[in-house]
Amino acid sequence: MTQAIVLFAHGSRDPLWRAPMEAVATRIAAQSPGRQAICAYLELCGPSLPDAVRQLVADGATAVTVVPMFLGTGKHAREDLPLLVQELRTAHPGVQFHVQTAIGEDPRMTALMAEIACESPPI
């Protein structure tokens, strides 16, 4: 089984906005060289989630984990993403899909955000 990760975010026309998501994908590639990681966006830029998954499947992925790069489970994670994933399951019946909870709801992420917020400002 070839596992792949899709970092799924809202999207923006501003390439600077996308830089943190792309940095996560780059870090995954460095830490896990055998695992494919790609960013996908709901709107305003590409690739879309279906396009990203199509690319991963063409490259041999048989299991895809979708990581919602949202701080919370809002409308996009709660309503839009499940519909998109159902369409992906229909389009790629031989691929296993797993959807994680919104990244910001992971206790490790909230702990890290609290730690960063409490840092002393530089003097």
UniProtKB/TrEMBL annotation:
Pfam family for this entry, one: CbiX
Keywords annotated in UniProt: Lyase, Metal-binding
MF term (GO), any: metal ion binding
Enzyme class: lyase
InterPro entries membership: CbiX-like (IPR002762), Sirohydro_Cobaltochel/CbiX (IPR050963)
EC id: 4.99.1.3
CDD domains associated with the record: CbiX_SirB_N
Entry-linked PANTHER family: SIROHYDROCHLORIN FERROCHELATASE, CHLOROPLASTIC (PTHR33542:SF3)
Protein name in UniProt: Sirohydrochlorin cobaltochelatase
